[in-house]
Amino acid sequence: MTLVEINFDGLVGPSHNYAGLSLGNLAATKNAGGISYPRAAALQGIAKMRGNMGAGLAQGFLLPLPRPDVKWLEALSADESTDPALVAGAWSASSMWTANAATVSPAPDTADGTCHLSVANLVTMPHRSHEWPDTLAQLRLAFANRDHFIVHGPVPPCFGDEGAANHMRLTPSHGEPGLEVFVYGRTGGRFPARQHVEASRIVARRHGLDPARVLMVEQNPDAIAAGAFHNDVVAVANEGVLFTHELAFANPVETYDAIRARCPGAQVVEVPASAVSLAEAISSYLFNAQLLTPPDGEMTLVVPSECQDSEPVWSWLQQMLAGNGPIRHVKVVDVRQSMANGGGPACLRLRVVADPASVDPRFMLDDAKADAMEKVVAEYWPEQIDPADIGSESLASTIRTARSQMLALLALSELA
After folding, report:
1. Catalytic pick from 5, 115, 131, 162?
2. At 299, is the secondary structure helix, strand, or coil?
3. What's the rounded mean pLDDT across residues 130-136?
4. CATH number of the domain to which 181 belongs
5. 162: annotated active-site residue
6. What does the pLDDT look like over 77-88, one tens digit per residue?
7. Is 347 known to be catalytic?
8. Residue 250 sits in which domain range?
9. For the whole model, what pTM was predicted?
10. Is 329 labeled as catalytic in the residue annotation?
């Protein structure tokens, strides 16, 4: 069995729109009411996946959920005359950010030697709280091989769980036992802390993790207040490297010391606030990047093109590359449609360390499949959506048809 890191990117759904439903997500609320471009968004996402495959990395994907979610509206006794935010919540394409789909503990970390996934309940934000049943069905299909995977239901809704966006893993290499770092919040001023420490503890226990190889870390309340609604907006880890903003954690020195003690050889690449302010880091999504190790071993940071637009961020990245640190390359990707709704390259992917042969092959990407998916997107995804169109039966029909065409292409009728 060959264990590698597989990135499962969320295909941007045909209902992608800017309703501004996510309190604390500054990009989402800033662009509320703007016109979105679902077709361009999905094509940008597929292009990002192609880039990973081109670097020799295993690449998977997860598909959009059924939208609009009529069952959710019925449960709320809601219709077009109801609160517009509830109606928009039924149309949300937020499942594209698969970093929130689940928390994943690879087989080398667990007591039973299988990879455990716990679907996130996402209860803090109403528009995302109804994602988990359909996400769970998809995860249980993609990871149905019980010799390799156990897929758990959500943590009880009294504790907010936002999945892998608040979880990091440090290890000498992906196939070795690692240190799993769970980042939780307590308060964010006017913004809610979305990850509860009890939710993280439940996930760690149910995954059968060794307590000596688990670290619970508090996120800096100032980071939450500044718009870092998830830890992955201010920190990202890969193998033995933590790339982080100076103000990411409530107690950074204690956090770094604990990581180094439990994961010998781990390196911390800290970006000082004096070089890149918290506001600049969040607006550029410098840390909401994919930190990857291609087959050549040259660790690469995949950042959104907004990082090039920020003089402090781009200057710091060039200084980093000029040094002898562990991150050797920076690759720029265009995911502007996702960024305008508050999600960068890291938000769009769920990391699963596994043997690709153990995954349902329908969820694994290759160039031929990417070609075919692009054709379906180009033909069926709406070119643009004005928030004023949310609730339109004509648009709903277009969205349903687009998704059904993609399911038919991929022979995934179980998700219909």
Report:
1. 162
2. coil
3. 98
4. 3.75.10.20
5. yes
6. 988 778 889 999
7. yes
8. 4-415
9. 0.96
10. no
